Amino acid sequence: MDVIERIKTTLAAHPIVLFMKGTPQFPMCGFSSRAVQALKEAGAEFHAVNVLEDPEIRANLPRYSNWPTFPQLFIHGELIGGCDITLELLASGELARMVRDAARAASE
Known about the structure:
The protein is α+β, with helices and mostly antiparallel strands. The chain has one domain (3-103): Glutaredoxin (3-Layer(aba) Sandwich). Helices cover 54% and strands 16% of the residues. It has helices at residues 3-13, 30-41, 55-65, 83-92, 94-107, and strands at 16-20, 47-50, 72-75, 78-81. The chain has a 4-stranded mixed beta sheet. Strand 1 (16-20), helix 2 and strand 2 form a beta-alpha-beta unit. It is globular. The mean pLDDT is 96.
């Protein structure tokens, strides 16, 4: 399976996916750490992919998503954005709504 197919398969298998540097328990950059914290505050259950452990995904995801940096948050296979957008959505209450909607859709 090529790397783009692996990305698509991961996105199809999980309602909320965070491609990040490190893991939620041990983030390897401040932006990834803040994105994880925002998702936790919004009550999200999410799947994390450590791009440091998968150089193919790290190299190809920016081309797939047209987003150059990490972390990258996807909900229902759609790119939401990086750390700044995630924090803005948290502050506005929108992230919590998106997380609830994703959880509801996943349980249907």
